[in-house]
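Illustration: Putative dinucleotide-binding enzyme.
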Amino acid sequence: MKIGFVGGTGHIGKGLALRWGKGSNHEIFIGSRNESRGREAAEEYSRLLDEAGYEHEISGGDNRFAVENSDVVLVCIPYKSVFETMESLSSVFDDQVLISPVVPMFKSEGQFGCDDCCAALDIDNATPEGVRVVSAFHTVPAKPLYEFDNPLECDVIVCGENDAKMVVFDLIDDIDGMRGLDGGDLSVSRLTEAVTPLLLNVSINNDISHPMIKFISP
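Result:
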């Protein structure tokens, strides 16, 4: 599958690009506002996979390059940049599945919180009609993703319309140890986005490094 990353030079973009980039199942396109930065990031990720002995297909450029070459697009940018970025890319979106791990998060007086909005719904409203938005990966910390040979024993809640969610479930299955769970339609994303600042507060207040979520049935 061809997977593009809008803002693929950041933490979550790097981790997922490395996980999906190892091997020959997927072709990865790293995007950035700055074309040269996108290329540099793709070269860095390629070097890391080369050193680990993996085949890969990773290339970089600007965000338009990443979108127009991909079947699935991840939007890995801060919430404050969502509307401007989506507007600048509206002409190159087609009928891709767009995955949002975006969280409308803030920090105040040493604690993290979430704005009273939903990033996934805002992205859905800001993209052309044929684009199918799915929210996922809000509760996956970046650093464990970088360790791309280590299984990730965690769950990922996925929200959106059913056909698009199936595409995302397949991608989740490609990451060792990760399990995708159906959270419902896109409106439920408001709840899953709010879990990110909760995990960060738990991490800070209890000295727990990189907490993740796993649902257990007794």
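Reading the tokens back as a structure: The chain has one domain: 2-206.
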